[in-house]
Amino acid sequence: MGSDIFKSTSVDQEQTQWMPVSDLMAGLMMVFLFISVSMMRYALIERDKIKEVAVAYQETQVAIYEALLSEFEDDFKKWGAEIDKDTLNITFQSPEINFARGSVRLTNQYETILSDFFPRYMMKLEPFQAAISEIRVEGHTSSRWRLETNSEESYFKNMELSQQRTRAVLRYVYELPKVEIYRPWIKANVAAVGLSSSKLKLDSNGQEDVNTSRRVTFRVLTNADVQIKKILNI
Predict the structure, then answer these.
(1) What confidence score (pLDDT) does residue 100 get?
(2) Separation between Cα atoms, residue 169 and residue 82, nearest integer Å
(3) DSSP per-residue letters across the chain
(4) Residue 213: which of 224, 203, 221 has the closest Cα?
(5) What is the pLDDT of residue 96?
(6) pTM reported for the whole predicted model
(7) Quick one: what percent of the chain has pLDDT higher than 70?
């Protein structure tokens, strides 16, 4: 009899000890479930924000492209230029018009083109300034230098040449009287970048196209990536 009472008391004590533990586990599971649901909801909200930025980016990209195309479509052929819808690159790809071979001096013809192009370019981009993080004047060359020069030396020689050319272009357009009102914005947002032969143009056989590789590009970069980083707190 006494033994039965002792066993009953022990079982009751074990059950009494077990119940709080089970309640604790249930409580923890509810907490983890709440955290998981909250994190999932937060992730969905962030995804939707990023999606909104991506949609806005695409709409801005299209709007800039259409504005530039409507302004310059009739001029591109006579300038030896073209615009890329996906990158918003306007490329002047007639090397004989832009610079003399191996020279950093703009030709008279190229100065005439830039005097016409750049003020109109800035005017068309003005409504989109809040969405633009940078405009790059990019200089590109072929991989060639002199016959006795190896590929590494040619690359760096062409790097120096492309940098000097883009600086010459930027200086020329910056000093145009018609863009005086844009000069503070140009200082803050326009960069001259020499890329040497890093982005060669290839022909249909996959070989370097020397002539089209020598080019100057005006490239618009929007701030979509900046907005996404703000959302992600990067």
Answers:
(1) 80
(2) 18
(3) -HHHHHHHHHHHHHHHHHHHHHHHHHHHHHHHHHHHHHHHHHHHHHHHHHHHHHHHHHHHHHHHHHHHHHHHHHHHHHHTEEE-TTT-EEEE--HHHHB-TT--SBPHHHHHHHHHHHHHHHHHHGGGGGGEEEEEEEEE--S---TTS-HHHHHHHHHHHHHHHHHHHHHHHHT-GGGGGGHHHHHHHEEEEE-TTTT--B-TTS-B-HHHHSEEEEEEEESHHHHHHHHHT-
(4) 203
(5) 77
(6) 0.72
(7) 75
Phi, psi for 75 (deg, rounded to 5): -95, -25
Alpha-carbon distance of 31 to 47, in angstroms, equals 24
CATH top-level class for 51-232?
alpha beta
d(CA 215, CA 43): 44
Q: Are 117 and 75 in contact (CB under 8 A)?
A: yes
Length reported for the chain: 234
Domain residue limits, the chain: 51-232
